[in-house]
Specification:
Shape: globular
Radius of gyration: 17 Å
Strand content: 5-15%
Structural class: alpha/beta
Order of helices and strands: EHEHEHEHHEHHHEHHEHEH
CATH topology: TIM Barrel
Bound molecules: phosphoenolpyruvate
CATH class: Alpha Beta
Distance between the termini: 18 Å
Number of domains: 1
Length: about 250
Amino acid sequence: MKRQQIAAGNWKMNKNYTEGRQLAKAIADGMDESENLAILGVPATHIKAVSGIVKKVANLEVAAQNCHQAESGAYTGEISVSMIKSVGAKYVILGHSERREYFNEGHELLAAKVNTVLGKRLIPIFCCGEPLAIREAGTHVAHVKKQLEDSLFHLKKNAFSKIIIAYEPIWAIGTGVTASPQQAQDMHKAIRALLADKYGATVADGTSILYGGSVKPANAKEIFGQPDVDGGLVGGASLKAADFLQIIHSF
Ligand code: PEP
């Protein structure tokens, strides 16, 4: 089964509304219909406008960067999956290391968010990855295995098969340090083996596993060229249209 190859951008808390629309428009204008899927992970305030802009490009979609786990209710300041869906996003980034670290998002909460996103028929882009100390201790596969077990492996096969995984070693996010193509490949292969153990080879082979951590135009081709790397989740380099387009063109 051919896996979907994806270049996803994560704008984080960058770009005001006008700047965001300009960036989305420049990316949409630079994309060719024959290209792989690209996803723009934009601030919630921008989803509706960016969805309108990307509509004319078949292989360009929008993601939210977070959601609340409840369907609705008295949660001042939060945003539900229904709200996200109603303004045109099809994906939700969950479990980003910044949300885990700065907003104390743990395994149980992330499992609840995964359920809510899937329940509304949106697609989670589920982030996992180890801090530097774990990498140096050599226990990174076990660390990521636990993240997957605790927040995803409660899902039945059919539900799990909708998930996109983003492996993002924390030591490579926003640091300029990239995992080597071999390090990325080794981890992606290990993740795919974990998926095969749990859900069988067909699901494992069909799951897109993206690499995130200082992907740039200069390194995207080599990283995306690894057999188990199905694209990238890109932070800093997704904020410049020319750079992100070059990354999209790197497959
Ligand atoms: C990210 O935030 O998911 C990320 C990978 O950031 P960067 O590309 O800037 O390292």
